[in-house]
Design a protein that fits this description.
alpha+beta; 34% strand; elongated; binds adenosine-5'-triphosphate; transport; ATP binding; AAA+_ATPase; ABC_transporter-like_CS; NA-bd_OB-fold
Length: 351
């Protein structure tokens, strides 16, 4: 069991600073997911915790011990990579046992740990196979198994599922969630995938250009994003944003309709944010927006309607089931009583 603490972590490549002073407290046993757009510094941060990348400033502690100058193998961490990084000339068993043998672990104990990890991951039948004779999903389980046998205090995952197809991804995601429950270890996980972040994380850390934008539970980030960046980043379908004007106790919408404001706001020009799943079809009289249906994507269980307003803004509306809508028809949309977000000119959430 181990806390992980980051204090003022910086990283520069030459004169270019890419991580600008990150502070973060990860509790022992917590599952923390780093998300953010490509190049925001997720992998760099993870690799600095792993000791694979030197830090340019700040302090990293694992289990209460400052590890800035501790080499990676002595940090009590195990890392699982996107590329699996298995040794091609070794069997599954040998791949899993390799690190323990290097550490001069007694043979009987190596055997017991490898078999226990194989049991947890249900790869007992493949122990004698070579990696090339395994599917991508099986290889990734071996890579996870290799991490488990070392009995680390902290697991670090760098996009471990991104090479798998959709159904295997979902299956392995559930296995990782179960693993976290079984092992009770601290896990830090980097991903691009919204579903992985939302479903696996106790807390999500949203990074942008080398800085933390917000840290919170998946539902906190979904319900109370602190700014338009987090609001637009979290959730499967991007939040809709529209410019609006505050007039007294009302919001004036793009096409002239008004919406009562529950809290008076000082800002005049603001951005309204509303998630596609919180919009609904309405009668023309009750609608807050009307527009032309420019694209509809039917998923069976739900549909995404892309509606172009007269102002040129495109709104995404998520509708249950398989709505019977025709391309280019007029669609009328109602805003929910709650679930509407407001942001100031700098993109900060207004409460
Ligand atoms: N060895 C390097 N030399 C110079 N710049 C680097 C090096 N490694 C990473 N960077 C830069 O540091 C920044 C952060 O990279 P990092 O790989 O951490 O991003 P990321 O958020 O993990 O991105 P992705 O999701 O695309 O993997 C990027 O701008 C990248 O170009």
């Amino acid at each position: 069991m181990a806390d992980v603490t980051l204090r003022g972590i910086r990283k520069s490549y030459g004169s270019l600073e890419v991580v600008h002073g990150v502070d973060l407290d990860i509790k022992s046993g917590e599952f923390v997911v780093f998300v953010g757009p490509s190049g925001c510094g997720k992998s760099t941060l993870l690799r600095m915790i792993a000791g694979l990348e030197p830090i340019s400033g700040g302090e990293i502690s694992i289990g209460g011990r400052v590890v800035n100058d501790v080499p990676s193998p002595q940090r009590g961490i195990s890392m699982v990579f996107q590329s699996y990084a298995l040794y091609p000339h070794m069997s599954v068993y040998e791949n899993m046992a390799f690190g323990l043998k290097l550490a001069k672990t007694p043979k009987a104990e190596v055997d017991q740990r490898v078999r226990e990890a194989a049991r947890i991951l249900q790869i007992e039948d493949y122990l004698e196979r070579m990696p090339k004779a395994l599917s991508g999903g099986q290889r990734q389980r071996v890579a996870i198994g290799r991490a488990i046998v070392r009995n680390p205090k902290v697991f670090l995952f760098d996009e471990p599922l991104s090479n798998l197809d959709a159904s295997l991804r979902a299956q392995t995601r559930v296995e990782i969630a179960k693993l976290h429950d079984t092992l009770d270890a601290t896990m830090i996980y980097v991903t691009h995938d919204q579903v992985e972040a939302m479903t696996l994380a106790d807390r999500i850390v949203v990074l942008n250009a080398g800085r933390i934008e917000q840290v919170g539970s998946p539902l906190e980030l979904y319900r109370n994003p602190v700014n338009t960046f987090v609001a637009g980043f979290i959730a499967s379908q991007r939040m809709n944003f529209l410019p609006v004007v505050v007039e007294g106790n009302q919001l004036r919408l793009v096409d002239g309709k008004a919406l009562p404001l529950s809290h008076p706001q000082l800002a005049k020009a603001v951005t309204l944010g509303v998630r596609p799943e919180h919009l609904e079809l309405a009668s023309p009289e009750a609608a807050h927006f009307s527009g032309t249906l420019s694209v509809i994507e039917q998923f069976g269980e739900y549909a995404l309607a892309y509606v172009e307003l007269a102002s040129g803004e495109l709104m995404t509306v998520k509708l249950d089931g398989a709505p019977d809508l025709q391309l280019h028809e007029q669609v009328h949309i109602g805003l929910p009583a709650d679930g509407v977000h407001l942001f100031d000119a700098e993109g900060r959430a207004l409460r």
